[in-house]
Amino acid sequence: MTPISAPFPMSRPRRLRQSQWIRDLVSERQLSASDLIWPIFICAGEGERQPVASMPGVERLSVDLAVEAAKEAVDLGIACIALFPYTDASDKTPGAEEAWNPDNLVNRATRAIKAAVPGLGVMLDVALDPYNSDGHDGIVRDGVIINDETLMALENQALGHAEAGADILGPSDMMDGRIGVIRRALETHDFPDTMILSYAAKYASAYYGPFRDAVGASGALKGDKKTYQMDPANSDEAIREVAIDLSEGADMVMVKPGMPYLDICARVKSEFGVPTYAYQVSGEYAMLAGAIEQGWLDGDKVVLEAMMSFKRAGCDGVLTYFAPRIAQMIF
Ligand code: PBG
């Protein structure tokens, strides 16, 4: 597109900004609650709420309270929720077997939520880190994350989540070949409609710190995730990762983190034209929520502006801990 404009004063861009109605009329995009996926942390117990220290305003919820949150999400017009477990250290093993326990926290929560509010989308992560005593997304042996053995564990986990009723599986582990393995398992076990939103371009990021507190993985994690998550220096590699995941059967793709990687969101959307999501991760939330709490930033305005950056970059939707706040604002 070649922009054509008359020289000043025939052309005055401010003419189209002079009042709210004309700004609305020429506005290029709009936010909607149906663009949001709300990540919720699940803990054991009943009537239990546990604040996450590094994420002001975010609480872990027991299954019964997560059902209430799900009802709130529906009332607010939020499309989908994503559930993450805070697993007790005693349930973590080197084989991460709790990941495919049919009665683990997220499987129980999914059943309860699907029974109460069937119209709300439920997404579950496929990765071993909340269940692994090493804190890694894959199986670790002698300090090495073993790709192909991890795939078998991920297959078990994915089938358990599909069985529990998850609508969307979000493989966030970054093992090679996982999308194909999960997709084939879903087809073989009669879950043809289960969707895969692949964490396709997931970077080895320091912005995940507060999340690891929230799911209780920070203490457990030995080393870093650089042998499977991507180098923040790379952009072409993100395109290759997305291409692989799509060719293996992903329905939708995600870029993660969000705001520091908007260039990747824009490239992925323009090169593939598939449903593309950004995850505004825990560290991005913590930066904004911390400054808002101090009164340094105007919360409502800054959160909406951040959302608009994702829409402008071409994202079809955003996973964000601000989802209920945003939905309330734009309702
Ligand atoms: C686990 C997973 C992580 C996040 C989502 N799924 C953490 C990680 O990879 O270490 C991060 C989400 C956030 O920071 O909000 N595989």
Mean pLDDT: 97
Helix content: 25-40%
Contiguous runs where pLDDT drops below 50 for at least 5 residues: none
Strand content: 15-25%
User: What gap, in angstroms, lies between the N and C termini?
Assistant: 34 Å
Helix and strand content put the structural class at alpha/beta
Q: Tell me which ligands are bound.
A: ligand PBG
Q: Which terms would index this structure?
A:
binds ligand PBG, globular, alpha/beta, 8-stranded parallel β-barrel, 12 strands, two-stranded antiparallel ribbon
Short précis:
38% of the residues lie in helices and 18% in strands.
Produce the secondary structure layout.
Elements lengths: L19 H7 L9 E8 L5 E3 L7 E4 H14 L3 E6 L19 H12 L4 E6 L12 E3 L2 E3 H18 L3 E4 L6 H11 L6 E8 L6 H6 L21 H12 L4 E5 L5 H11 L3 E5 L1 H12 L5 H14 L4 E4 L2 H8 L1
Parallel strand pairs: 1-3, 1-4, 1-12, 4-5, 5-8, 8-9, 9-10, 10-11, 11-12
Antiparallel strand pairs: 2-3, 6-7
Helix pairs in contact: 2-3, 4-5, 7-8
Bound molecules: ligand PBG.
